[in-house]
Design goal:
CATH class: Alpha Beta
Strand content: 5-15%
Shape: globular
CATH topology: Rossmann fold
Low-confidence stretches: 1-7, 9-13
CATH superfamily: NAD(P)-binding Rossmann-like Domain
Helix content: 25-40%
Strand order of the largest sheet: 3-2-1-4-5-6-7
Order of helices and strands: EHEHEHEHEHHEHHEHH
Mean pLDDT: 94
Number of domains: 1
Oligomer: single chain
Length: 319
Amino acid sequence: MSYFPASLVTMTTETNETKPLRGRICLVAGATRGAGRAIAVQLGAAGATVYVTGRTTREKVSEVGRATETIEETAELVTAAGGEGIAVPTDHLEVEQVRALVDRIDRERGRLDVLVNDVWGGEHLLVFGKKTWENDLTGGLRMLELGVRTHVITSHTALPLLIRHRGGLVVEVTDGTAEYNGPRFRENLFYDLAKNAPIRMAFGLGEELEEHGGTAVCLTPGWLRSEQMLAAFGVTEENWRDAVEKIPGFAIAESPVYVGRAVAALAADPDRHRWNGRSLSSGQLAGEYGFTDADGSRPDAWGFMLADEKGEPDVDDYR
């Protein structure tokens, strides 16, 4: 059984008044695990119908190599949280598969209100400590395919359906805010490009969606306690603090619930257009909308990292 906090699926008895996304149709591209899965579940907890995509199914494992999380399980968790989860195995590098996905949503629902571009799956290719010319070119280009090309294909294909009704929301998910990434090199050129491109995409899409009343933002979690991250550190969600002794900064880490609640809050906000084109973080939106992480805290990982470059900030001030 994969890691998934019980707090994400305990919202099934809420009333209609607390289901602000009831009737909304959402697509979370890249929802097999981590941030994408949590975003899908939190949209479901708010009452939405959520189409969830990914490459790992109960019959087939993607190149990421993790059979413990599947797209079918994500859909089931969305439904258990109070929404309707629909799993559609999709490789977002395959244009025809993405077209078939969007055609299905159109045929079954006739609209798309929220598009979340969370496709990635490139961690296994990431190598730090090497110059660009020392890195494997094939692996680097694959990162760009996974982190940029997939997002472009999905937006190009899905946006005609989204703009059919005014007020649509596009969320580009990345790693790092514009404030943090802008003047800093993310230690690997391919990764730097892959994670800065969604920031620029949100800006550009925001310009294009303006006349349709749509909103595009780029959103980053902080130091995310994803399934892969926990496994890499040899801990679980229950004892993750044991890793803090070896990696002090990990004390500011957040669960995937946090960024999931950030997207749900954005989607439910009738005044969300004020964020159009901007780069946002889960911690920033928590301060704006008042939600918390699963443990009741409000981590501000990017604020902590910026402060850490100037001194030794107190973790408690950023949690």
